[in-house]
Design goal:
By secondary structure, the chain is mainly alpha-helical. 75% of the residues lie in helices and 4% in strands. It contains eleven helices and two strands; from the N terminus they run αααααααββαααα. A two-stranded antiparallel ribbon has the order 1-2. Strand 1 and strand 2 (232-237) form a beta hairpin. Helix 1 crosses helix 5, helix 3 packs antiparallel against helix 7 (193-217) and helix 3 packs antiparallel against helix 9. The two termini are 23 Å apart.
Length: 307
């Protein structure tokens, strides 16, 4: 265990010496923290618009007043879903790609394995190091978001809401680790680091943008009346084809789970955490499978190199 922790410690130090990784990580932290301000400003704008409409209707003698919009606290943080889905996955890709590619090209990996250390200890140490860095970023983000949420919005998060937020960050951790493992797997299978990085970016584009947009194009849209602006808005409805396409995108599954946990979907905003997880069981399974596959693939690929 001591050797694994030593390797993990080296991975953590290496990550924070990498300027490219630090730049992306700082961008992720900054945008995640700014999500509180953006969400709060959006909700305040909705409330102001509603009050303006109510005042206008009353001045015209109207007796029918639209219902006041419900403000669900965690929905203020909804922008963080997209930041984790996009920037968070890039952070994980940078971290995973650097784990083996540089050491392999410089030949230091052979030097490491010439010492009394096993291959499984080496890859376990790197996984522990990567997991620690990702967990650290998310914990910092969680603490800052909770603090700024109270300061900016003036609302307090109760235990049920904090539980939902914590579970969201657990899924965010697994989502980012999945991209870390995918990057690790690709770098292990390819002897050319440039090709491996480009391939990983293509995979990232596919699962993060192309597949979700293709699924979005297959949804049905209905028109609903917005009580605040009194305008018609388009609301997407899932179809069998759109749900089938989303199976191949961990990003789409993560967003589906995140929207329910952070009270973005009004119909699910007041459901218990257990009910939310039960409703999203299929999305959770589809999110878990790629990460487990990449974990097995990385282990298998690296251990086979020693045979």
């Amino acid at each position: 265990m001591g050797k694994i922790l030593s390797i993990a410690s080296k991975e953590i130090k290496t990550a924070f010496k990498d300027k490219a990784f630090l730049a992306v990580a700082l961008l992720f932290l900054l945008l995640s923290i700014l999500s509180v301000y953006i969400g709060s400003a959006t909700k305040n704008a909705e409330i102001t618009a509603y009050q303006d409409i109510v005042n206008l209707l009353k001045s015209q003698g109207a007796t029918s007043i639209p219902a006041e919009p419900k403000i669900f606290p965690l929905s203020i943080l909804k922008n963080i879903i997209n930041y984790v889905a996009v920037i968070g996955s890039i952070v994980a890709i940078f971290l995973g790609f650097n784990s083996f590619s540089e050491e392999r090209e410089e030949g230091t990996i052979k030097l490491l394995l010439s010492r009394p250390i096993y291959r499984d200890q080496l890859i376990n140490g790197k996984l522990f190091g990567g997991a620690f860095v990702i967990a650290g970023l998310l914990i910092i983000t969680l603490v800052f978001n909770c603090f700024l949420f109270t300061v900016v919005s003036g609302m307090n998060i109760n235990f049920a809401e904090f539980s939902r937020l914590t579970v969201f960050f657990v899924f965010a951790f697994y989502y980012m680790i999945s991209f870390y493992l995918a990057s690790l797997f690709v770098s292990l299978k390819s002897q050319n680091s440039t090709f491996a990085f480009l391939l990983m970016l293509i995979i990232w584009m596919g699962v993060s943008y192309v597949i979700p947009q293709l699924a979005e194009s297959q949804k049905n849209y209905v028109y609903v009346l917005n009580n605040i602006s009194q305008t018609m808005n388009q609301m997407p409805q899932d179809t069998l084809l759109s749900k089938t396409i989303e199976i191949f995108s961990p990003t789409a599954q993560f967003k589906n789970i995140g929207r329910d946990l952070l009270q973005v979907v009004p119909e699910h905003a007041q459901l218990s955490l257990f009910t939310i997880l039960k409703l999203n069981l299929r999305s959770i399974i589809y999110l878990l499978v790629p990460g487990l596959f990449m974990l097995f693939g990385s282990y298998n690929s690296f251990l086979k190199e020693g045979n």
